[in-house]
Protein backbone atom coordinates (compact mmCIF):
# COMPACT_ATOMS: atom_id res chain seq x y z
CA UNK A 1 0.00 0.00 0.00
CA UNK A 2 1.12 3.55 -0.70
CA UNK A 3 0.26 6.72 1.20
CA UNK A 4 0.95 10.42 0.91
CA UNK A 5 -0.08 13.70 2.46
CA UNK A 6 0.60 17.25 1.27
CA UNK A 7 3.48 17.62 3.75
CA UNK A 8 5.19 14.21 3.59
CA UNK A 9 6.91 12.08 1.00
CA UNK A 10 5.13 9.05 -0.52
CA UNK A 11 5.71 5.88 1.49
CA UNK A 12 4.95 2.18 1.18
CA UNK A 13 5.51 -1.00 3.17
CA UNK A 14 6.76 -4.49 2.30
CA UNK A 15 3.33 -5.92 1.46
CA UNK A 16 3.40 -7.94 -1.74
CA UNK A 17 7.19 -8.06 -2.04
CA UNK A 18 8.82 -11.47 -2.38
CA UNK A 19 11.98 -11.97 -0.34
CA UNK A 20 14.80 -14.21 -1.59
CA UNK A 21 18.54 -14.32 -1.00
CA UNK A 22 20.94 -13.75 -3.89
CA UNK A 23 24.63 -14.64 -3.89
CA UNK A 24 27.30 -13.38 -6.28
CA UNK A 25 30.97 -12.34 -6.08
CA UNK A 26 31.20 -13.96 -2.65
CA UNK A 27 28.46 -11.67 -1.27
CA UNK A 28 24.95 -12.62 -0.15
CA UNK A 29 22.03 -10.31 0.55
CA UNK A 30 18.29 -10.66 0.77
CA UNK A 31 16.53 -9.17 -2.24
CA UNK A 32 12.92 -8.04 -2.46
CA UNK A 33 11.08 -8.35 -5.77
CA UNK A 34 7.73 -7.19 -7.08
CA UNK A 35 6.26 -6.98 -10.57
CA UNK A 36 3.13 -5.49 -12.10
CA UNK A 37 0.41 -7.81 -13.37
CA UNK A 38 1.76 -9.42 -16.52
CA UNK A 39 5.35 -8.47 -15.68
CA UNK A 40 7.45 -5.66 -17.04
CA UNK A 41 11.02 -4.58 -17.84
CA UNK A 42 13.48 -4.83 -14.98
CA UNK A 43 14.85 -2.18 -12.64
CA UNK A 44 17.29 -2.71 -9.77
CA UNK A 45 16.61 -0.12 -7.05
CA UNK A 46 19.50 0.27 -4.60
CA UNK A 47 18.45 1.75 -1.23
CA UNK A 48 19.82 4.90 0.33
CA UNK A 49 20.95 5.22 3.95
CA UNK A 50 19.71 3.82 6.30
CA UNK A 51 18.09 1.13 4.12
CA UNK A 52 14.71 0.07 2.75
CA UNK A 53 12.82 2.75 4.65
CA UNK A 54 9.15 3.55 3.86
CA UNK A 55 10.18 6.44 1.59
CA UNK A 56 12.46 4.14 -0.43
CA UNK A 57 9.64 1.63 -0.65
CA UNK A 58 7.38 4.45 -1.86
CA UNK A 59 9.74 4.99 -4.78
CA UNK A 60 9.93 1.26 -5.40
CA UNK A 61 6.15 0.93 -5.46
CA UNK A 62 5.92 3.91 -7.79
CA UNK A 63 8.16 2.08 -10.25
CA UNK A 64 6.02 -1.05 -10.02
CA UNK A 65 2.88 1.04 -10.53
CA UNK A 66 4.50 2.39 -13.69
CA UNK A 67 5.03 -1.06 -15.16
CA UNK A 68 8.49 -2.12 -13.99
CA UNK A 69 9.58 -5.37 -12.38
CA UNK A 70 11.66 -4.14 -9.44
CA UNK A 71 14.35 -5.87 -7.37
CA UNK A 72 15.70 -4.20 -4.23
CA UNK A 73 18.88 -5.62 -2.68
CA UNK A 74 18.86 -5.04 1.07
CA UNK A 75 22.52 -4.07 1.39
CA UNK A 76 22.23 -2.49 4.83
CA UNK A 77 19.69 -1.62 7.50
CA UNK A 78 16.43 -3.36 8.38
CA UNK A 79 13.83 -3.67 5.59
CA UNK A 80 10.75 -1.58 6.28
CA UNK A 81 12.14 0.24 9.33
CA UNK A 82 11.34 3.95 9.48
CA UNK A 83 14.12 6.54 9.44
CA UNK A 84 15.17 8.03 12.76
CA UNK A 85 18.25 9.80 14.05
CA UNK A 86 19.20 6.80 16.18
CA UNK A 87 18.74 4.40 13.27
CA UNK A 88 20.92 6.57 11.03
CA UNK A 89 23.57 6.86 13.75
CA UNK A 90 23.74 3.08 14.18
CA UNK A 91 23.91 2.38 10.42
CA UNK A 92 26.47 4.87 9.12
CA UNK A 93 29.48 3.69 11.20
CA UNK A 94 29.01 0.13 9.91
CA UNK A 95 29.06 1.37 6.33
CA UNK A 96 32.17 3.45 6.96
CA UNK A 97 34.27 0.41 7.90
CA UNK A 98 32.78 -2.14 5.51
CA UNK A 99 35.19 -3.54 2.91
CA UNK A 100 32.19 -4.22 0.68
CA UNK A 101 31.56 -0.50 0.14
CA UNK A 102 34.95 1.22 0.67
CA UNK A 103 33.18 4.42 1.64
CA UNK A 104 36.29 6.64 1.76
CA UNK A 105 38.49 5.11 -0.94
CA UNK A 106 39.26 7.11 -4.08
CA UNK A 107 39.51 5.62 -7.58
CA UNK A 108 38.23 2.40 -6.06
CA UNK A 109 36.53 -0.68 -7.35
CA UNK A 110 33.96 -1.62 -4.73
CA UNK A 111 33.08 -5.30 -4.19
CA UNK A 112 29.39 -4.45 -3.96
CA UNK A 113 29.36 -3.34 -7.61
CA UNK A 114 30.36 -6.82 -8.81
CA UNK A 115 27.43 -8.16 -6.81
CA UNK A 116 25.07 -5.59 -8.31
CA UNK A 117 26.22 -6.35 -11.85
CA UNK A 118 25.41 -10.03 -11.30
CA UNK A 119 22.01 -9.07 -9.87
CA UNK A 120 21.27 -6.85 -12.87
CA UNK A 121 22.29 -9.63 -15.26
CA UNK A 122 20.05 -12.11 -13.46
CA UNK A 123 17.09 -9.73 -13.61
CA UNK A 124 17.72 -9.03 -17.29
CA UNK A 125 17.52 -12.75 -18.08
CA UNK A 126 14.06 -12.92 -16.51
CA UNK A 127 12.41 -9.75 -17.79
CA UNK A 128 11.48 -8.29 -21.18
CA UNK A 129 12.96 -5.16 -22.73
CA UNK A 130 16.19 -3.89 -24.22
CA UNK A 131 17.99 -4.43 -20.90
CA UNK A 132 17.53 -3.35 -17.29
CA UNK A 133 17.75 -0.06 -15.44
CA UNK A 134 19.61 0.57 -12.18
CA UNK A 135 18.75 3.34 -9.72
CA UNK A 136 21.12 4.25 -6.90
CA UNK A 137 20.50 6.90 -4.26
CA UNK A 138 22.69 8.67 -1.70
CA UNK A 139 25.27 6.17 -0.40
CA UNK A 140 24.43 3.88 -3.34
CA UNK A 141 24.08 6.61 -5.97
CA UNK A 142 27.42 5.97 -7.63
CA UNK A 143 26.99 2.20 -7.41
CA UNK A 144 24.45 2.44 -10.22
CA UNK A 145 27.04 3.93 -12.57
CA UNK A 146 29.62 1.25 -11.80
CA UNK A 147 26.93 -1.39 -12.30
CA UNK A 148 26.26 0.05 -15.77
CA UNK A 149 29.58 -1.40 -16.92
CA UNK A 150 27.62 -4.64 -17.41
CA UNK A 151 26.06 -5.20 -20.83
CA UNK A 152 22.70 -6.02 -19.21
CA UNK A 153 22.31 -2.41 -18.02
CA UNK A 154 21.01 0.10 -20.57
CA UNK A 155 20.00 2.89 -18.17
CA UNK A 156 21.49 4.03 -14.87
CA UNK A 157 20.28 6.72 -12.48
CA UNK A 158 22.64 8.23 -9.90
CA UNK A 159 20.62 10.28 -7.45
CA UNK A 160 22.75 12.37 -5.03
CA UNK A 161 25.80 10.03 -5.27
CA UNK A 162 27.72 10.39 -2.01
CA UNK A 163 30.53 7.82 -2.13
CA UNK A 164 33.36 8.30 -1.56
CA UNK A 165 32.28 10.51 1.30
CA UNK A 166 33.38 14.00 0.14
CA UNK A 167 36.04 14.80 2.70
CA UNK A 168 38.70 16.80 0.88
CA UNK A 169 39.03 17.98 -2.70
CA UNK A 170 40.11 14.64 -4.17
CA UNK A 171 37.08 12.79 -2.81
CA UNK A 172 34.73 15.54 -3.98
CA UNK A 173 36.03 15.13 -7.54
CA UNK A 174 36.11 11.34 -7.43
CA UNK A 175 33.61 9.63 -9.81
CA UNK A 176 32.84 6.87 -7.33
CA UNK A 177 34.43 4.03 -9.29
CA UNK A 178 37.79 2.68 -10.40
CA UNK A 179 39.61 4.04 -13.48
CA UNK A 180 38.93 0.74 -15.26
CA UNK A 181 35.21 0.97 -14.52
CA UNK A 182 35.14 4.62 -15.57
CA UNK A 183 36.88 3.75 -18.85
CA UNK A 184 34.41 0.95 -19.55
CA UNK A 185 31.44 3.15 -18.69
CA UNK A 186 32.73 5.92 -20.97
CA UNK A 187 33.12 3.44 -23.84
CA UNK A 188 29.58 2.12 -23.38
CA UNK A 189 28.23 5.65 -23.14
CA UNK A 190 30.07 6.84 -26.24
CA UNK A 191 28.80 3.88 -28.26
CA UNK A 192 25.20 4.48 -27.19
CA UNK A 193 24.90 1.23 -25.26
CA UNK A 194 23.87 2.91 -22.02
CA UNK A 195 22.26 6.22 -21.00
CA UNK A 196 22.85 7.90 -17.65
CA UNK A 197 20.92 10.32 -15.45
CA UNK A 198 22.25 12.16 -12.41
CA UNK A 199 20.32 14.20 -9.86
CA UNK A 200 21.31 16.45 -6.96
CA UNK A 201 20.30 19.54 -5.01
CA UNK A 202 22.42 22.59 -5.71
CA UNK A 203 23.55 23.07 -2.09
CA UNK A 204 24.02 19.39 -1.24
CA UNK A 205 27.51 18.99 0.18
CA UNK A 206 27.10 15.22 0.47
CA UNK A 207 26.74 14.89 -3.32
CA UNK A 208 29.24 17.56 -4.40
CA UNK A 209 29.03 19.51 -7.63
CA UNK A 210 32.68 18.64 -8.30
CA UNK A 211 31.74 14.96 -8.70
CA UNK A 212 29.18 15.85 -11.33
CA UNK A 213 31.75 17.96 -13.18
CA UNK A 214 34.06 14.93 -13.31
CA UNK A 215 31.30 12.67 -14.58
CA UNK A 216 29.92 15.11 -17.13
CA UNK A 217 33.36 15.93 -18.56
CA UNK A 218 34.02 12.28 -19.30
CA UNK A 219 30.54 10.97 -20.15
CA UNK A 220 29.19 13.87 -22.19
CA UNK A 221 25.65 14.39 -23.42
CA UNK A 222 24.48 10.89 -22.57
CA UNK A 223 24.88 11.82 -18.91
CA UNK A 224 21.80 13.94 -18.29
CA UNK A 225 21.98 16.07 -15.15
CA UNK A 226 19.08 17.45 -13.14
CA UNK A 227 20.05 19.94 -10.42
CA UNK A 228 17.28 21.24 -8.18
CA UNK A 229 17.76 24.67 -6.65
CA UNK A 230 18.11 24.49 -2.88
CA UNK A 231 19.79 27.88 -2.43
CA UNK A 232 18.37 30.43 -0.01
CA UNK A 233 14.90 31.62 -1.06
CA UNK A 234 14.50 28.94 -3.76
CA UNK A 235 11.08 28.70 -5.39
CA UNK A 236 10.56 25.08 -4.32
CA UNK A 237 10.92 25.82 -0.63
CA UNK A 238 13.71 23.25 -0.24
CA UNK A 239 16.05 23.46 2.72
CA UNK A 240 19.74 24.02 2.01
CA UNK A 241 20.24 20.58 3.56
CA UNK A 242 17.85 18.87 1.10
CA UNK A 243 19.41 15.63 -0.11
CA UNK A 244 17.05 12.79 -1.09
CA UNK A 245 15.80 13.98 -4.49
CA UNK A 246 13.43 11.16 -5.48
CA UNK A 247 12.32 9.93 -2.05
CA UNK A 248 12.07 12.12 1.05
CA UNK A 249 11.84 15.45 -0.76
CA UNK A 250 9.02 14.39 -3.13
CA UNK A 251 5.59 15.94 -2.55
CA UNK A 252 2.67 14.81 -4.68
CA UNK A 253 -0.12 17.12 -3.46
CA UNK A 254 0.72 19.72 -4.56
CA UNK A 255 3.46 18.44 -6.81
CA UNK A 256 6.89 19.98 -6.29
CA UNK A 257 10.10 20.02 -8.32
CA UNK A 258 11.30 16.79 -6.71
CA UNK A 259 8.07 15.19 -7.93
CA UNK A 260 8.95 16.33 -11.46
CA UNK A 261 12.46 14.91 -11.06
CA UNK A 262 11.00 11.58 -9.96
CA UNK A 263 8.74 11.56 -13.02
CA UNK A 264 11.76 12.22 -15.24
CA UNK A 265 13.41 9.16 -13.70
CA UNK A 266 10.38 7.08 -14.65
CA UNK A 267 10.26 8.39 -18.21
CA UNK A 268 14.04 8.01 -18.59
CA UNK A 269 13.84 4.36 -17.55
CA UNK A 270 10.85 3.73 -19.77
CA UNK A 271 12.55 5.27 -22.80
CA UNK A 272 15.64 3.14 -22.40
CA UNK A 273 14.72 -0.22 -20.92
CA UNK A 274 11.83 -0.68 -23.38
CA UNK A 275 14.14 0.21 -26.26
CA UNK A 276 12.07 3.24 -27.35
CA UNK A 277 15.06 5.61 -27.20
CA UNK A 278 17.44 3.11 -28.80
CA UNK A 279 15.66 2.38 -32.08
Automatic annotation (TrEMBL):
GO terms for molecular function: hydrolase activity. Residues 40-159 form the Dienelactone hydrolase domain. The keyword Hydrolase applies. InterPro entries: AB_hydrolase_fold (IPR029058), Dienelactn_hydro (IPR002925), Dienelactone_hydrolase-like (IPR051049). Gene3D superfamilies: alpha/beta hydrolase (3.40.50.1820). Keywords: Hydrolase. It holds the Pfam family DLH. The keyword Hydrolase applies. This is Dienelactone hydrolase.
Amino acid sequence: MTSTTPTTAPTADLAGWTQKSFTAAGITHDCFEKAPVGGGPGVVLIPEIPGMAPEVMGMAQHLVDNGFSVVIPSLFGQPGRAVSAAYMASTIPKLCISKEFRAFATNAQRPVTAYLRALASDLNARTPGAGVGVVGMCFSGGFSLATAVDDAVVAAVASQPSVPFPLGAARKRDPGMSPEEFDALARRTASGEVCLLGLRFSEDKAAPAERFVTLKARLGDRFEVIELDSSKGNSGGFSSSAHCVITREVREEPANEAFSARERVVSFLRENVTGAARQ
